Amino acid sequence: MVIIMNLIYVTISNEEESLYIGEKIVKKRLTACANIISDMKSIYWWEGNLEKDNEPILILKTIDENLGAVMAKIKEIHSYDNLCII
Amino acid sequence: MVIIMNLIYVTISNEEESLYIGEKIVKKRLTACANIISDMKSIYWWEGNLEKDNEPILILKTIDENLGAVMAKIKEIHSYDNLCII
Amino acid sequence: MVIIMNLIYVTISNEEESLYIGEKIVKKRLTACANIISDMKSIYWWEGNLEKDNEPILILKTIDENLGAVMAKIKEIHSYDNLCII
After folding, report:
1. Interface touch B37/C37, C-beta < 8 Å
2. Which of C42, C45, C50 sits opposite B35 (nearest CB)?
3. What ranges do the domains of chain B cover?
4. CA B41 to CA B82: how far, in whole Å?
5. A74, B7, C30, C72: least buried by Cβ within 10 Å?
6. CB C53: neighbour CB atoms within 10 A?
7. Burial letters for B15-39: b for 16+ Cβ neighbours within 10 Å, e otherwise?
8. Name one GO biological process term (chains A, B, C) (predicted).
């Protein structure tokens, strides 16, 4: 059986928050599962400075029907004001 | 030279199996290479319970022509009955 | 605000080079950020032999407008002659 899935990629402040967000979304059955890659180094501009930080990646797989609800839920509970969700 | 590649993303039970599947597929020259991210935490429903587990990710890159054969090979040798291949 | 982003995935020889390339590209403001997954095992053919190696993954997110410049910059400074950029 082939189902068309969207793969969502979002960086999170730390592992605890990535587990929190992942669990919330899977619990609500908006995605079948959540995958968390904890060891990731990020390089980015912040307030005029080039920063390097450890940011876990949260990867979610969901069907078209749930995509809007998953994005809304991430924005609602994520600690960042400026989010990059791919 | 630009070649259109498909990126295949599949979670595996453990590192040993991810190396086994990756090697089998690269040996058959169905993909140029296999990439394995071992340290990944998965959250998912299993038989009514919310489970947390370590599941390596196997990433494969292949041309359209080989996509069917790669998917068939993964299904054939993967230990899971229910597979999520993106 | 929704912006259409391209996610670029390229494997690098080691962590030092992945940080070097990531920083160069973010400094030139060609991408908002660079994400580096250091712990990745690669299986590939090299000069007739099946090789296994550790290769960090560099993930870059950029808008259509910058895609060409990012690809050109990676090719310019990457140590590999044969690159696989997805």
Report:
1. yes
2. C42
3. 6-77
4. 18
5. C72
6. 14
7. eebbbbbbebbbeeebbbbbbbbbb
8. response to metal ion
Sequence length of chain C is 86
- For A32, B32, C9, the CA distances from C74, given in Å and listed in that order, are 35, 20, 11
d(CA C26, CA B37): 24
| CB atoms near residue B57 (< 10 Å) | 22
Is B32 within 8 Å of C84 when comparing Cβ atoms?
yes
Mutate to test the interface with C, among A6, A41, A58, A67 (most CBs of C within 10 A): A41
Q: Are strands B57-62 and B33-37 parallel, antiparallel or unpaired?
A: antiparallel
Domain spanning B6-77: CATH 3.30.70.120:
yes
The predicted-structure confidence for A20-61, as pLDDT tens digits, reads as follows 999 999 999 999 899 999 999 999 999 999 999 999 999 999
Q: Is B57 on the interface with C (CB under 8 A)?
A: no
Model pLDDT for residues C18-67, shown as the tens digit of each residue: 999 999 999 999 998 999 999 999 999 999 999 999 999 999 999 999 99
pLDDT value, residue A1:
59
* Segment 26-45 of chain A within 8 Å of chain C by CB: 37, 39-45
DSSP string, B30-74: SSSEEEEE--EEEEEEETTEEEEEE--EEEEEE-HHHHHHHHHHH
> What ipTM is given for this predicted complex?
0.90
